[in-house]
Design a protein that fits this description.
The structure is a single chain. This protein is about 50% helix and about 10% strand. By secondary structure, the chain is of the alpha+beta class. Strands 1-2 form a two-stranded parallel sheet. The chain is globular.
Length: about 70
């Protein structure tokens, strides 16, 4: 993540962590590492797509406000 965020060509690309860990206390750590979203496995397609939409909407809101 650090390399993606440090590179001007990739720093604005939204990245969602997909993890087998369902431990809720790890969510803040994952987001603090620079991920824009967090999904646990097993994935629900509906929930995953909702998460992608939320991340993309936030990304678009940020892009238009700057």
């Amino acid at each position: 993540m650090a390399a993606l965020r440090a590179d001007a060509a990739t720093q604005a690309i939204p990245v969602i962590a997909v993890t087998a860990s369902a431990m809720s206390h790890q969510r803040p750590q994952i987001l603090a590492a620079g991920f824009d979203g967090y999904q646990t496995k097993p994935l629900s397609v509906r929930t995953f797509l909702q998460g992608v939409r939320e991340v993309l909407d936030r990304s678009m809101d940020t892009a238009t406000s700057t």
